[in-house]
Write a structure and sequence with these properties.
- By secondary structure, the protein is an all-alpha fold.
- Helix content is 78%, strand content 1%.
- A hairpin with a 2-residue loop joins strand 1 and strand 2.
- Helix 2 packs across helix 11, helix 3 packs parallel to helix 5 and helix 4 packs antiparallel against helix 9.
- The radius of gyration is 22 Å and the shape is globular.
């Protein structure tokens, strides 16, 4: 009976959280006062999709991936070239980005079978730099360092998503679907295998699990999410060039994952929001805002290695316990009198 009641309470709590989150997402554009603020939130949504994918590699499987900017760039260039050079619909360009993610994921997945730790990290950095250099030098296709301009907006049945608010709601749908898929995969047998690989890969292999296919799957999922986010970014910005996809961008995605907490889907959203919004808030410090931001991240990594969100939850729980103890003691004293 207790297990059933706990399950029911968890379901009710999840429903309340989902409804609250949906309400916040719906009303947020009406709370924000400028297009610039909505634009920042659009970036949060796009980056959330990337971090949801990265979580499968670094968060669940425990393998370092510093090539996310390369995946992001490939998705962006695939749909941008298709739309501007061949007049292909952005929606078909999105499908091309997904196919690109499948190919990249499998291509990067195989080196992960032999490489670990810093060697895998260097391999993914090399991949990202190769993508950036190809984009910068393949002038006839990518436009070189001048980039690709006039990338069209998404449109559906004649309705064009040509304002920040319209794009916000479109991206929110993508994020919601991405979160749903991430939760389903993380709670499936594949998700449990990913976590097991992170904790003890040798034990998993001895259990008869094909860890090669699992690692390739994790990289493939990560690449698909990254390429989809890149496609959204291209049609959101309307212009892309190689300087947008540097190693700094890959590092930011890892920081988002770290801030939100490794392995947490909700933490992915929190991390993407904090790392995107916090530098904008700190711009009041002008030339010093990056220094302050990096210092905050460094201190957070030292004192809150499990993620800022989980650290906050622990603090709140401790405060609630102390309040309950005080109420209990006060009640006993009152009862004694």
């Amino acid at each position: 009976m207790e297990k059933k009641s706990n399950t029911m309470n968890n379901k009710k709590r999840n429903i309340i959280l989902i409804c609250t989150a949906a309400a916040v997402v719906l009303i947020l554009p009406w709370i924000l006062t400028t297009d610039y603020q909505i634009m920042v939130m659009n970036k949060v949504l796009i980056y959330t999709v990337v971090v949801l994918g990265l979580n499968f590699i670094t968060g669940l499987t425990g393998q370092m991936n510093l090539g996310t900017a390369g995946m992001f760039a490939l998705g962006a260039y695939a749909t941008a070239v298709a739309a501007t050079s061949y007049g292909i619909s952005p929606w078909i360009g999105l499908v091309l980005a997904i196919v690109m993610g499948l190919l990249v994921g499998r291509g990067l997945g195989y080196p992960s079978l032999r490489l670990k730790g810093v060697y895998l990290a260097l391999t993914t950095i090399g991949f990202s730099e190769v993508v950036r250099l190809v984009a910068a030098n393949w002038v006839s296709v990518t436009g070189g360092t001048t980039g690709i301009r006039n990338i069209p907006y998404y449109s559906l049945a004649g309705y064009v998503f040509d304002t920040q608010t319209k794009m916000y709601y479109l991206f929110a749908v993508f994020v919601a679907f991405g979160i749903f898929c991430a939760y389903r995969l993380a709670d499936s047998k594949w998700g449990r295998i990913f976590k097991s690989l992170r904790d003890n890969a040798d034990a998993v292999e001895m259990s008869g699990v094909n860890i090669a296919s699992c690692k390739i799957l994790a990289f493939t999922v990560c690449a698909i999410y990254g390429c989809i986010a890149g496609a959204l970014y291209a049609h959101f910005m309307g212009y892309i060039n190689p300087s947008s996809f540097t190693i700094d961008l890959s590092t930011n995605f890892v920081i988002m994952l770290m801030v939100g907490g490794l392995g947490s889907v909700v933490g992915n959203i929190f991390g993407a929001a904090v790392v995107t919004i916090l530098p904008e808030i700190l711009r009041v410090f002008e030339n010093y805002y990056q220094l302050i931001f990096c210092t905050i991240v460094l201190v957070g990594a030292i004192f809150f290695p499990e993620g800022w969100m989980f650290a906050g939850i622990k603090v709140i729980r401790k405060m609630v316990k102390k309040l309950r103890k005080r109420e209990h003691i006060t009640g006993e004293m009152g009862g004694g009198e």
